[in-house]
Design goal:
With 114 residues, the chain is an alpha+beta fold. The chain has one domain. 34% of the residues lie in helices and 18% in strands. It is built from four helices and three strands, in the order H-E-E-E-H-H-H. A three-stranded antiparallel sheet has the order 1-2-3, covered by helices on one side. The longest helix has 13 residues.
């Protein structure tokens, strides 16, 4: 496998450490590169225990470098869990594509944002 492929595999295994279905830890051989276009890759994770196949999209931007402070922040962040992925799935399922609602401050109405 190319150096780039090894690097991508390491990124995926750091973020998704185990099968979301049976919790078996993934190994290097469980990750396969399916395709690539520009700075985006599609990889698969195959669980040899329960035979579930997960497909992962990975986008990498080379337009900026992380500061040492940002690097340390991400090193200390807890790994994503299957609950995190499910929460994001549910959010995206109902997301209308308007990012302004995510970045604007809510009006002071006394009610929490929905």
């Amino acid at each position: 496998m190319s150096e780039q492929g090894k690097w991508l595999r390491q990124i995926v295994l750091q973020v998704i450490r185990c099968c979301p279905h049976c919790q078996r830890p993934y190994e290097d051989a469980d990750v396969r590169l399916l395709g690539q276009k520009d700075d985006s890759w599609i990889l698969s994770l195959y669980c040899r225990s329960c035979h579930v196949l997960a497909v992962v999209g990975l986008g990498v931007s080379s337009t900026g470098e992380l500061s040492p402070r940002e690097i340390e922040h991400f090193k200390q962040a807890p790994p994503l869990t299957s609950d995190d992925l499910l929460d994001m799935h549910l959010f995206l399922e109902h997301f209308d594509g308007d990012f302004r609602c995510l970045t604007e401050r809510p009006a002071k109405s006394g009610k929490p944002p929905q």
